[in-house]
Write a structure and sequence with these properties.
This protein is of the alpha/beta class and 220 residues long. The two termini are 25 Å apart. The strands form three sheets. Strands 2-1-3-4-5 form a five-stranded parallel β-sheet, with helices on both faces. It is globular and about 50 Å long. Helix 2 runs parallel beside helix 3. It has eight helices and eleven strands. Residues 2-116 form the Response regulatory domain.
C-alpha cells in the first residue's frame, strides 16, 4: 500500500514508518500541515494517517480541504485529543476512524487495513480462488494448503490486485503501487514480478488483458 503519514512527533513518526515499511508498504512521512496538503494535491494514496496538532496547518483543516475537493481517501486520525466533542468534530469533518495516543502499533495497522478493505468494497480480509487462499490482514498466502513466501514487491502487486478483484489495473498503476515515485525502473519489472507470482500461485491466477493491464477474478 501507498501510505501518507502526517505526524510531527519524530519518535512516533519513526516508529510508525518502520512498522509500516516492515510490512512492505510505501510510506511518505511529513511533519507539517502545509507540505502534507501540497503532497495530497499531487499524489494519490491508499490511506492517510493524520495527526491533528501539526505545525503550520491543523489536521482538521487538512481533512476539511481533502473532503471539500471530493477526495475520498480513507483517513485515520491519530491524536492526543481525547474528548468526545473533538472526536465527533473529526468524524463529521470526514475522518474514517479515530485513534487516541498512546496507541499500540498493531492496533493502528489493523485499523488501517480495515479502512482500506472497506474503501475497496472488501470487508472480508480473505480472498480465495481455486486452491489459493490469501489473508490480507495477516499477509498469509497458501496454495493447495502449502504456505507461499512472497517478496515485498510480489506482495505489493498481489495486494493491489485482490483489493479490486475483477478490475483491470494498468502496468503504470502497479508500478506506482510497487515503486512509488522512483523513476529508474526497468520497463519489464512488473512483468517479472507477475511471472514470479504465477509460478507460485498458478499460471491462470493473474489474468493478462492484452494492452490494458492485469486482474484477478472476482470471488464466486
Amino acid at each position: 500500500m501507498k501510505i501518507l503519514l502526517i505526524e510531527d512527533d519524530v519518535m512516533i513518526g519513526e516508529n510508525i514508518q518502520i512498522a509500516l515499511e516492515n510490512e512492505s508498504n510505501l510510506v511518505d512521512w511529513l511533519d507539517n500541515g502545509i507540505e502534507a496538503e501540497e503532497l495530497l494535491l499531487k499524489h494519490s494514496y491508499d490511506v492517510v494517517l493524520l495527526d491533528l496538532s501539526l505545525p503550520q496547518r491543523d489536521g482538521i483543516e487538512i481533512l476539511n480541504s481533502l473532503r471539500k475537493r471530493g477526495d475520498t481517501v480513507p483517513v485515520l486520525i491519530m491524536t492526543a485529543r481525547d474528548t468526545v466533542p473533538e472526536r465527533v468534530s473529526a468524524l463529521y469533518a470526514g475522518a474514517d476512524d479515530y485513534l487516541v495516543k498512546p496507541f499500540d502499533l498493531d492496533e493502528l495497522i489493523a485499523r488501517m487495513h480495515a479502512l482500506v478493505r472497506r474503501s475497496c468494497g472488501r470487508v472480508d480480509a480473505l480472498y480465495s480462488a481455486g486452491d489459493v487462499i490469501i489473508n490480507s490482514a495477516t499477509r498469509q498466502v497458501s496454495n493447495k494448503q502449502e504456505q507461499i513466501i512472497l517478496s515485498s514487491r510480489e506482495w505489493a502487486i498481489l495486494d493491489a490486485l485482490i483489493s479490486r478483484p475483477g478490475a483491470i489495473l494498468s502496468r503504470s498503476r502497479l508500478e506506482e503501487k510497487v515503486f512509488g515515485d522512483l523513476t529508474d525502473i526497468d520497463s519489464n519489472a512488473i512483468e517479472v514480478y507477475i511471472h514470479g507470482l504465477r509460478k507460485k500461485l498458478g499460471q491462470k491466477f493473474i489474468v493478462n488483458v492484452r494492452g490494458v493491464g492485469y486482474m484477478v477474478e472476482k470471488q464466486a
